[in-house]
From TrEMBL:
One of its GO terms (biological process) is isoleucine biosynthetic process. One of its GO terms (molecular function) is L-serine ammonia-lyase activity. InterPro entries: Ser/Thr_Dehydratase, Thr_synthase-like, TrpB-like_PALP, TrpB-like_PALP_sf. This is Threonine synthase. The keyword Lyase applies.
Length: 427
């Protein structure tokens, strides 16, 4: 199959009064660039991120947010794209439930625990947030083809949003992706390419393609815009808690971007006076089979050494995480920690979350709950402090680890006597 490039020049974004984003800036050296499809500093090769006009950000108030739609676009005044509702790409993601988790808290010996449940998004993962922002930026930049490298949830979301917006989608995934994620991506009719290799192999190919084809690669050349969508998970938690920050959060780590953007959201809200600027701790969660950031944290080093992933938590299987060093910085600055858990612990935690709170999280959710348990056991996380954990996806996408584990209580003939003989009516 030959994929024809689009060679039309793509314009940059014009900063206007409605958009608080004014430039791209280097995270390392501070060099600035126009708002465009770019993600690497040409001076030092460090990643770029969005810079904002502080005066425009300060126009956002609690009242203006609360008057907005009950989705992520209520925070449009704090985001770099989507300011023209007629060009915005949206399936209505965001404002997902912040569920009190008293039974899980009691089982773990905690006082106050919440589950931010992003499985309620349109394609059942938090990726709908970042994709909605990224594709809105891509459309404003003049792209008609969007692409990505994905471990599954991003593929699903890009394919769905592109179909909705009438954009062409080209999605690259590892060949051994879970069936649930493959089918739920292919159904939208875009181009789905399975690559013989792991996510890091897919991502390398995607980076090469980005140099050859003038497409919007949401987690390559559009990455600065894409990443900002994760901030809405921080904004929502604060708003849903009555405009205050939680004392502790536990966030799963794949690339590390989600963890850093939740922290960025909390800092922005405090700086803008939308919440009281109270201290909080950020904890990161990884699977032992793909734990480069947790390993670096345990060693007390700043360098994140790449690993070859081998875990059931495929949505977190990024062996060379782009934002790993920044995740380390956040955990250390806030007094948090980053830890990891085994596949067996992940499955046990998936079942615990479902049994205790009726939330069926995917394997990444199991990682988060299992790491919460480990952090408590090791005395790193305060059981008395108000804590929010993030469930980023739906367990229906990752059924394989539970096959043979979550099974019928009994298999009996269709007879009352058989039901009673099995003791199923006993209290």
């Amino acid at each position: 199959m030959t994929l024809a490039p689009e060679r039309a020049a793509q314009p940059g974004l014009t900063s206007d009064d409605a958009n608080p984003a004014i430039a791209l800036s280097c995270r390392n050296c501070g060099a600035t660039y126009p708002l465009a499809a770019a993600h690497v500093c040409v001076e030092c090769f460090a990643p770029l991120e969005i810079s904002y006009d502080e005066d425009r950000l300060r126009r956002v108030t609690r009242a203006s947010i609360e008057a907005g739609p009950r989705n992520l676009w209520r925070y449009v005044g704090l985001l770099p794209a989507g300011h023209d509702p007629n060009r915005r790409v949206s399936l209505g993601a965001g404002f997902t439930p912040l569920r009190p988790a008293p039974r899980l808290a009691a089982e773990l010996g905690m006082k106050t625990l919440w589950v931010k449940d992003d499985s309620a998004n349109p394609t059942h993962s938090f990726k709908d947030r970042v994709v909605s922002v990224a594709l809105s930026a891509a459309r404003d930049l003049g792209f008609t083809t969007v692409a990505c490298a994905s471990t599954g949830n991003l593929a699903h979301s890009v394919a769905a949003h592109a179909a909705h917006a009438g954009l062409r989608s080209i999605v690259l995934v590892p060949h051994d992706l879970e069936d649930g994620k493959t089918v739920s991506t292919a159904v939208y009719g875009g181009t789905l390419v399975a690559i013989q290799g792991n996510y890091d192999d897919v991502n390398r190919l995607c980076s090469e393609l980005a140099g050859e084809y003038e497409w919007a690669f949401v987690n390559v050349n559009i990455r600065p815009f894409y990443a900002e969508g994760s901030k809405t998970l921080g904004y929502e938690v604060a708003e849903q808690l009555g405009w205050r920050l939680p004392e502790q959060v536990v966030v799963p780590i794949a690339s590390g971007s989600l963890l850093t953007k939740v922290d960025k959201a909390f800092r922005e809200l405090g700086k803008l006076g939308l919440v009281e600027d109270t201290p909080y701790k950020v904890f990161g969660a990884q699977a032992a089979g793909c734990n480069p950031v947790a390993a670096a944290f345990a060693r007390g080093v700043d360098t994140v050494a790449p690993v070859r992933p081998s875990t059931i938590a495929k949505s977190l299987s990024i062996g060379n995480p782009a934002d790993g060093p920044y995740a380390l910085d956040v955990a250390r600055r806030t007094g948090g920690a980053i830890t990891d858990v085994t596949d067996d612990e992940i499955v046990e935690a998936m079942r615990l979350l479902a049994r205790a709170e009726g939330v069926f999280g995917e394997t990444a959710g199991g990682v988060t709950v299992a790491c919460l348990r480990r952090l408590l056991r090791e005395g790193l996380l305060d059981p008395e402090a108000e804590t929010v954990i993030y469930n980023t996806g739906d367990g229906l996408k990752t059924l394989d680890p539970l096959v043979g584990n979550a099974v019928p209580t009994a298999t009996i003939p269709a007879k009352l006597s058989a039901f009673e003989a099995a003791g199923l009516g006993d209290d």
